[in-house]
Amino acid sequence: MNRKNPDIMTKVEYKHTEIAVKKQLGQNFLTDRNITRKIVRLSGVEPDDTILEIGPGFGALTREIIDIHPSFTAVEKDPKLAAFIRAEYPQLQVIEADFLKIDLEALSGGKKLRILGNIPYSITSPILFKLLENRHTFSSATLMMQHEVAMRIVAVPSTKDYGILAVQLQAFFEVSYGFKVGRKVFKPQPGVDSAVITMKPKAGVPVSDPRGFSRFVRCAFHQRRKTLLNNLREEYNLEAVQPETLKLRAEALAVEDFFELFDTLSLKPL
């Protein structure tokens, strides 16, 4: 541990470039080329795609994408890593910035992006919700993340992992679990395993008010052990809902059930 800066955990050296790993950026670098090849294959990247890589780091995934598509865009927040990628892969457009502040609409240039990335554990949820808000800008996102979060995304009703994240993302994306990635293939080694998932935006909009639906889902899961009646009655008019439905907990409802219930509700006046 660096006593002067607790956010720096260790140092990683690659091709004579030494990087102080920043804890606050959630940096864990993938070292197994078999895994990066599997990620690119899973993504379905084609030579004519418009590709965006989130957080290339030392370029483990980058070099596999380049074998298919020699020029694309990568977003890297760490200045030293951004400089490394520019020097190593001068044909790339490297944007030194926080992905959460990137304008995906402008970046796509009117074409659908194909997004790949080994995303930091510390900001996985903000990245996922940014992608949710900007789902019209990309055709697929193939992402490596903490295994626990991946399981929450693909969870089914009436399981402990099924909650807000599963419903929100499954409502607007076709989500699929790719494969598990053990912690030993990273440097520094994290305390948890990872997994790769793919998200593809659904063709249509399943609800007329997506933002209102997101608010409704958060409200329905507000206290997991409480019934829908107890979680929803303060904010919504429930007169049109069947009493048997209101006795259920949110975790018992499939995504399609959430759509149907949302269509029957109206917000109470302030």
Strands in their spatial order, largest beta sheet: 6-5-4-7-8-11-9
Using the alpha-carbon principal axes, give the shape. Answer: elongated
How many DSSP helices?
11
Q: What is the CATH C-level name of the largest domain?
A: Alpha Beta
Q: What's the architecture of the largest domain, going by CATH?
A: 3-Layer(aba) Sandwich
Q: How much is the average pLDDT?
A: 89
Radius of gyration: 21 Å
Low-confidence residue ranges: 1-14, 20-26
CATH topology of the largest domain: Rossmann fold
Compute the number of strand runs: 13
Query: What structural class should be given to the helix and strand makeup?
Result: alpha/beta
Q: Percent of residues in beta strands?
A: 15-25%
Keywords:
270 residues, alpha/beta, Rossmann fold, Helicase, Ruva Protein, domain 3, 2 domains, seven-stranded mixed β-sheet, two-stranded antiparallel ribbon, 13 strands, disordered N terminus
